Amino acid sequence: MSQTGRDDPQLLDNQLCFAVYAAAHAFGRAYRGLLAHHELTYPQYLVLLVLWEEEGLSVKEIGSRLFLDSGTLTPLLKRLEASGHVRRARDRPDERQVSIFLTEKGRSLKGKMDCLPNTVGGMTGMSLDQRRSLLEHLALMRDELHARAGGEASVTVSG
Fold this sequence. Notes:
CATH class of the largest domain: Mainly Alpha
Order of helices and strands: HHEHHEEHHH
Number of domains: 2
Distance between the termini: 14 Å
CATH superfamily of the largest domain: Winged helix-like DNA-binding domain superfamily/Winged helix DNA-binding domain
Shape: globular
Strand order of the largest sheet: 1-3-2
Largest sheet: 3 strands, antiparallel
Helix content: 55-70%
Structural class: mainly alpha
Mean pLDDT: 90
CATH architecture of the largest domain: Orthogonal Bundle
Number of helices: 7
């Protein structure tokens, strides 16, 4: 006998993964309007956040922080370089490695965008304490899923 109504685990609205996905999509839309003034996309903004914390990272290091592969990250970096926000340099001991640095234009955006997290956070309707708690829970969930999935899911589906 199948479950019906709100207790049905197969309902879309009962899926934690979908709730997280839909919330991430909503965040992307909220940021899109604010970032358009700076001619940036949300993924480009995430790259800048990483570089504002630490410059001179390799493409692999940035990708690791953002959970992006180089095939996705490289075009983002090329667009940021073309727009004058970052520069690439081969200044590591291994000349095959490219390090990514902010330009003055990229650095100057940090102060202009300091208000974005609180602006978008305020759009959630949640208090600062609620947002901090949610962030902690999401980080824990992400870390547990990464640790348990290990790249390939090993769940057996019966039926």
